[in-house]
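Quick review question:
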């Protein structure tokens, strides 16, 4: 080993050592130097080399041409002395093994560079848009345009002692509106909502066709009205982060009124109201505007069945009232 050290010192004019070291980088006087870079060893002064800014081997060079004394070492035997260079010298920090350099470079960890980590926080299923942004209670309002289907009823002893059927058709469109209070939640990616809805809709008579008497258009009078309440259930299937398909329906009851049905200048044949079972089927889309506000557009088929009404001459009739409704609405959550 002594022979190798002397050969190294003679060849390079530096302090030598034959110890094998794998060096990825060292601190020279507190400055990190990567493998492959060149550093300068002064002829005089102190040099501190190690694997941390405050740890290493300090060499004291008293004079040019003098000797370096190892005073704090872990890699070269303490107390050994080597001839110092006559002037400042340069050498390259080895990337692998070395047996010729004056200083045994301790193994140091590779330099690391921190890369900012962008954390993408996933939106929990409970708050991902699927027609409604969050669990909880919401209120809403809906407006609709309605295409009301024709109604029919019979008048006893209307024409020459015979019964006469009255078919009524309606102006398009009719109009409606409703208010809702509901609760929304999540299950396996689907959203579901349960709500109570109360509303009102109306449609004006366009014409009456009275069996045995004829068809009356300009002179036809009357309008169909219904005040209703439903319990609704909806399912919401997300198709984007904010847009969802919506489908559902409801059941309830409505007070159906056929108001002042008749022919101007001839007379009135029906003016009555009655309670009927009602239901509807809906399909459409919901869009999440904000975390607490959603808008919706839906088609609804709605029907009230067997409203018991009494004609002006006393016969009782069960009347159905149905419509195709096109709805726009808004919901606000809490």
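Suggested answer, residue by residue:
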């Amino acid at each position: 080993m002594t022979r190798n050290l002397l050969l190294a010192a003679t060849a390079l004019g530096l302090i030598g050592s034959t110890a094998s070291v794998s060096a990825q980088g060292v601190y020279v006087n507190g400055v990190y130097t990567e493998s492959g870079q060149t550093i300068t060893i002064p002829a005089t002064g102190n040099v501190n080399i190690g694997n941390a800014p405050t740890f290493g081997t300090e060499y004291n060079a008293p004079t040019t041409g003098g000797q370096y004394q190892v005073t704090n070492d872990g890699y070269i035997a303490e107390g050994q002395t080597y001839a110092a260079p006559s002037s400042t010298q340069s050498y390259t920090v080895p990337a692998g093994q070395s047996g010729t350099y004056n200083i045994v470079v301790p193994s140091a960890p590779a330099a690391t560079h921190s890369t900012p980590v962008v954390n993408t926080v996933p939106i929990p299923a409970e708050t991902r848009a699927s027609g409604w942004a969050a669990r909880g209670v919401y209120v809403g309002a809906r407006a609709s345009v309605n295409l009301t289907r024709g109604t029919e009823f019979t008048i006893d002893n209307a024409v020459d002692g015979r019964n006469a059927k009255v078919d009524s058709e309606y102006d398009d469109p009719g109009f409606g509106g409703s208010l809702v209070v509901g609760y929304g939640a999540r299950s396996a990616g689907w959203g579901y909502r349960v709500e109570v809805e109360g509303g009102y809709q109306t449609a004006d008579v366009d014409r009456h066709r009275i069996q045995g008497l004829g068809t009356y258009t300009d002179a036809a009078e009357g309008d169909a009205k219904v005040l209703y309440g439903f319990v609704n259930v909806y399912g919401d299937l997300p198709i984007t982060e904010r847009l969802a398909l919506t489908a559902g329906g409801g059941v309830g009851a409505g007070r159906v009124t056929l108001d002042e049905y008749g022919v101007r200048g001839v007379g009135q044949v029906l003016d009555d109201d009655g309670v009927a079972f009602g239901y509807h089927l809906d399909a459409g889309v919901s869009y999440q505007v904000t975390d607490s506000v959603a808008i919706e557009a839906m088609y609804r088929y709605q029907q009230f069945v067997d409203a018991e009404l009494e004609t002006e001459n006393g016969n009782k009739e069960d009347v159905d009232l149905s419509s195709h409704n096109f709805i726009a609405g808004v919901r606000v959550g809490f």
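Why it works: The helical segments are 2-12. The chain has two domains: 2-92, 136-333.
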